[in-house]
Amino acid sequence: MNDDTPWLSPREQRSWRAFVRLNQKLTARLGSELQSQSKLSGPDFAILVALTDEPSGRLRFQELAKNIDFEQSRLSHQIARMIKRGLVAREECAEDGRGAFVTITEQGVEAIEVAAPLHVAAVRRLLLDAISPEDLDALGDIAARVLRHLETTP
After folding, report:
1. Angle, nearest 10°, between helix axes 72-84 and 42-52?
2. Gap between the Cα atoms of 88 and 96, Å rounded
3. pLDDT for 123-147, tens place per residue?
4. Where do the H-state alpha helices sit in the chain?
5. What residues contact residue 49 under an 8 Å CB cut-off, 6+ apart?
6. Could you tell me the sign of the dihedral formed by the alpha carbons of 12, 146, 52, 79, in that order?
7. Residue 20 CA: distances (Å) to CA of 6, 28, 73
8. Residue 35 zone, left/alpha/beta (φ > 0; ψ -120 to 50; rest)
């Protein structure tokens, strides 16, 4: 072992491990419920949400990948599966022959309209019901601060 390693203190380790376990367990539960109730995977849901957040219902591949933190190849495979299921379509970009858009289909809109209320109910039941409004504010503040830090730290 390297003696120069700044090991986590017991307090830091307890908090870090609790955060990691919370993230793993909450993500798994939400994903499992989403799949069983709406037949959408977590990645399906993330893509459909990103597309419905756009008034046009479409995003360039690169912009979508950035929005949901997917590698380009992972996104391409996911989109191909979603196209086969009729949830999204691929549109070539007329202005840029190399670019393409991902567009939500009517079937994709219907799927997200079914899944979103179920997902919100699960988020409320599994997370929000367990914490106070003050805890929720603190959680939001901490998450925003760490996200800003991640965006500026190489």
Report:
1. 90
2. 20
3. 999 999 999 999 999 999 999 999 9
4. 10-38, 42-52, 61-68, 72-84, 106-126, 133-152
5. 112, 116
6. negative
7. 19, 12, 26
8. alpha
Instruction: Tell whether the torsion through CA atoms of 32, 69, 56 and 120 is positive or negative.
Output: positive
41 and 115 Cβ atoms separated by less than 8 Å? no
Q: Which two tokens stand for residue 62?
A: 């690169």
DSSP 100: E
Number of domains the chain contains: 1
Any domain includes 7: no
Whether residue 102 contacts residue 88, with contact meaning beta carbons closer than 8 Å, is answered with yes
Give pLDDT, residue 68.
Answer: 96
- Residue 18 covered by a domain: no
Contact 100, 139 (CB under 8 A): no
